[in-house]
Amino acid sequence: MTPGKRKVAVVGVSLSDCGRVDDATPYALHAQAARRALADAGMDRSLVDGFASAGLGTLPPVEVAEYLGLRPTWVDSTAVGGSTWEVMAAHAADAIAAGHAEAVLLVYGSTARADIKAGRRTGNLSFGARGPLQFEVPYGHTLIAKYAMAARRHMHAYGTTLEQLASVAVQARANAALNPDAMFRAPITTDDVLSGPMIADPFTKLHCCLRSDGGAAVLLAAEEYVRDCRTAPVWILGTGEHVSHTTMSEWPDFTVSPAAVSGRLAFERAGVRPDEIDVAELYDAFTYMTLVTLEDLGFCAKGEGGQFVEKGRLTVGGELPVNTDGGGLSAQHPGMRGLFLLVEAVRQLRGEAGDRQVRKTGGRLPELAVASGTGGWFCSSGTVVLGR
């Protein structure tokens, strides 16, 4: 096979135990997710020669690979927040296509909820007081405050309403109700969202993601391995990545996320248009993230996200099903959630999503999906277009 020309497929995906997992370490969740993904693919661990991990250990890919019994010849420890896993998937796909690796395992695991419950750490997300961030820290710029400022700017510029933002949370919960593994499944209303305790104006509690434990794993392999795998392949069609800022004063426009660039690149490289996508899995730490990412990926024009998310369009049976597992708002959010987006996108394309399975006209399975992760406070974005 000519280097750089090999097709690359996702051949295995899995989640570890998720939600409330008080009796496991992050390493155990990594291992559980990895074993399940390999079993899903029907691939022996000895064939994995590439490994990608971030967020755990002194030397993340080395320490976690050792724990999993792997000795990879290709590694990646890219750490750009929640979009890390879409960016890693892009790097892994490039490496496999070029012949630098045959099968690459991406793994993540976190006990973010259990650690706080047990007093092992606090939920402080104010971030560093050194480097460029030191100029914002004295003003109380926590992570959520940065997202709240961006949401308020969109509301000011385009007339986006609190009700429209709340509808994102309502529809995420409706999707979660169909997912037996979602952490929160009870229906909520717009009034429930609007009347909740204020966290950071304009975000009340239900505008914000939950905090959970959990892990995920995704296995990518070269096309020649596909015939020996037990699952139908889901192909990597196109990827894109982009970084924007860390300091809010260096962000040119609070209403434009880096997905505007990563999405354009991914769709161009895949040779597909946004209106051809059947399922979208988008990072949703806050309701505004979903709305602005839909705009920036080209599903609607800039400023029209508020109208776009209304009337059930994002539900499993809607015009553009988004975060079909319930997303970070209702299913699970153990920290850097980007890998969970890829798992759900693959399951939807393989027709393995159970009651939340998206169906096209005539009951056909979806053909194309997009997974787009966001890192930091719209600091980075990675977008992956997948197809059956």
Automatic annotation (TrEMBL):
The lineage of its organism: Bacteria, Bacillati, Actinomycetota, Actinomycetes, Kitasatosporales. It comes from Streptomyces olivochromogenes. Residues 240-388 form the Thiolase C-terminal domain. Gene3D superfamilies: 3.40.47.10. Pfam families: Thiolase_C_1 (PF22691). This is Thiolase. Signal peptide: none annotated. It comes from the Bacteria. One of its GO terms (molecular function) is acyltransferase activity, transferring groups other than amino-acyl groups.
